[in-house]
Amino acid sequence: MDAxxxxxxxxxxxxxxxxxxxxxxxxxxxxxxxxxxEARVFGVHSAMASxxxxxxxxxxxxxxxxxEVYRAVSQQIREIFADYTPLIEPLSLDEAYLDVTENxxxxxxxxxxxxxxxxxxxAATGLTASAGISYNKFLAKMAxxxxxxxxxxxxxxxxxxxxxxxxPVKKFHGVGPATAERMKKHGIETGLDLKMKPLAYLQQHFGxxxxxxxxxxxxxxxxxxxxxxxxxxxGAEDTFSEDISDLALAEAELRPLAEKVWRYCxxxxxxGKTVTVKIKYADFTQATRARTVASxxxxxxxxxxxxxxxxxxxxxxxxxxxxxxVTLSSLTTxxxxxxxxxxxxxxxxx
Length: 350
Known about the structure:
alpha+beta, MutS, DNA mismatch repair protein, domain I, globular, DNA polymerase, domain 1, Alpha-Beta Plaits
């Protein structure tokens, strides 16, 4: 979806249309969750501090998020997807992979499927979507960013390797700023640079990700679209209206976050055994503390107890605290053996 949260707000409030909009945060506090295309012109983007966004775009309008609305729209879109294939792997409320190799419509051309789905999404929701079409997940994701907003792009097996070679690695899906900087220190700035590095070299310097990087540099990604994909973590965080220095106040702020995470896990019949607490200070530096227990947590009180203990390890705080977060990971279905299917942590905040 194109600027999903912001586009929903502009759809539902005509006064916001054509104006720079940021969902989340405020002029003084917090972080931008989504920015309209009018705001992006000024360099505003998601995960940017609100004060920075306001400095870049003085006319920026901040809107409180309405996740219940976004979830409802996301469900409408999922229902459209399901008319074409059961192989749907959601990445978030506004993005998913679809495998249409064999599809319920019997359509032979993927570009026609994408165009039809996009038209149906617009008719049902009034919102635009962009699509990337390719022969694997990595390239489909890369293609989806080429014609935004409201467009689609194809990367064929013939031009896939050349497309990757010309692409800066900092734009690769799965390569964050820190990894891109590490790659730069090794002389890797483009897909071609990455392709020139032997597998052993990449494994030595990038660990388990080395084999993945070796493959995508050649346009190879063997990951399948998984409709049964288990979420790796569930998290919630909050930026406070005023910074906190008192431990008791900070512990009180952890409770609603842990409860939010716990409600999600109960609703989706999942459980975890790793608790992570995130602390962001007034100067925007941050710390995380995590603990893994022997078996999955059975009660919210157990999660809260561990979260409080983790928070206490960084008190007295080196700076006043502006944000706290709680994440539960190493997830399994609630009835499964605690050690079966444990996943590494990946922060996917609610």
